Amino acid sequence: MASQAPAHEEDSMDSFLDTFKSQKYKGGFNEATWEEEFDKIPMFMKKAPSEIDPEKNPDLACIQSLLFEGKSPEEQAKIYKDEGNDHFKEKEYKKAIAAYTEGLRKQCSNPDLNAILYTNRAAAEFYLGNYRSALNDVIAARKQKQDHLKAIVRGALCHLELKNFTEAIVWCDEGLRISSKEKKLLETRTKADRLRRAEQRDARKATVKAKQEQSQREALLQAIKDRNIKLIQQTCSEEEEVASDGITGLSLDELSSGNATAAKVYLDQKKNLHWPVLFLYPEYRQTDFVSAFHENSRFIDHLIMMFAEDLPPWDVERKYLPNELELYFEDEERAELHQVDVERSLLEVLQHRRYFVKAGTPTFLILVKHSPFCAQYFADKKVHRTA
């Protein structure tokens, strides 16, 4: 006959069970977040962290230490390799890199395994676009195993992405000596060879273009020199002034204008110069720009074209008529104005002993003759009435 528990023990158990009727258990999961909390338990985790911090995950660190306990560096490295492969299959490349790196830190003595770890990490780096890091890894892999074909394939692909086409071909050739029918190497070599040929072709074109531009530059500068036209740089001082005998030291960029169109003086097939010319209207603070003023064109022809039909909207008094206008250029060094005969050509004016083309753009002032503004404008300036 079974013995019965003493009455006092039964009373204690009943008392303990009664507490659950009035007091809710506080150690249970939250109804709204139970799945997240459940996933934090090492035995039920769907995915482990890529790096285990013993302070943040002491239980997981303990399980991991048990997993590696008594295992050699090679066995531990293999575990990390397999873990990295699992991450790689899930396209979690950063986690894969972390796992392969941990495997390499074990410094096992198996060169084949180390070569695989380096090559696999290179593959993960490659898919993240870190081609230089991937290349460094396959180079390290080949130090472990020189004929590791996957490392060679990956290295060829890295060189291809880095536009090192010659190096990509060299790596492909090395791999094809190991496996002559390796499809990826054959495809990569064909592509690298095609891109290298295109690169070489573009380089030859660039060289020819550079020579042509240099020839054009020299011809242009020589044409300016032959015409005794003087140039001055935008911010040069008196000592930096460039006269006709020193003009060959200028570059084409220094002959470009400062206007929005970036027009430049050029020499046409008939050996005529065309200049970008800027006209200033100080009375109204307005400007006009002619992008290609033929050196043999007269100023009056341009003035007629600019003002004969459609007067500018800012000329509310309708006084800017071709026959009522005067043209001047400024000698900044002497603070003087020189009047320009509008019947003269641009070339004749540019050859004036006191005219200097600044920043590659001849500039002229246009004023209405005998106007009050004109008299006021000339009040504190020395004016030469002929040019």
Features:
single chain, 13 helices, Serine Threonine Protein Phosphatase 5, Tetratricopeptide repeat, alpha/beta, 9 strands, 387 residues, 2 domains, elongated, two-stranded parallel ribbon, 7-stranded mixed beta sheet, Ubiquitin-like (UB roll)
| Main sheet makeup | 7 strands, mixed
Can you tell me the number of structural domains? 2
Order of helices and strands: HHHHHHHHHHEEEEHEEHEEHE
Q: What CATH first level of the largest domain would be assigned?
A: Alpha Beta
Continuous helix count? 13
Mean pLDDT: 84
GO molecular function, one term: Hsp90 protein binding
Domain Cns1/TTC4 wheel: 267-371
GO cellular component, one term: nucleus
Family: Belongs to the TTC4 family.
Helix-strand layout with pairing:
Layout: H1 7-22, H2 34-39, H3 58-68, H4 73-89, H5 93-105, H6 111-127, H7 131-144, H8 149-161, H9 165-178, H10 183-226, E1 230-232, E2 266-267, E3 273-281, E4 286-294, H11 299-307, E5 325-331, E6 336-340, H12 346-350, E7 356-358, E8 363-368, H13 372-377, E9 382-384
Parallel strand pairs: 1-7, 3-8, 6-9
Antiparallel strand pairs: 2-3, 3-4, 5-6, 5-8
Give a structural overview.
The protein has 2 domains: 132 residues, Alpha Horseshoe (Serine Threonine Protein Phosphatase 5, Tetratricopeptide repeat), CATH 1.25.40; 146 residues, Phosphatidylinositol 3-kinase Catalytic Subunit, Chain A, domain 1 (Ubiquitin-like (UB roll), Roll), CATH 3.10.20.90. It has 13 helices and 9 strands. The strands form 2 sheets. Strands 2, 3, 4, 5, 6, 8 and 9 form a 7-stranded mixed β-sheet that branches. A two-stranded parallel sheet has the order 1-7. Strand 3 and strand 4 form a beta hairpin. 25% of the residues are buried.
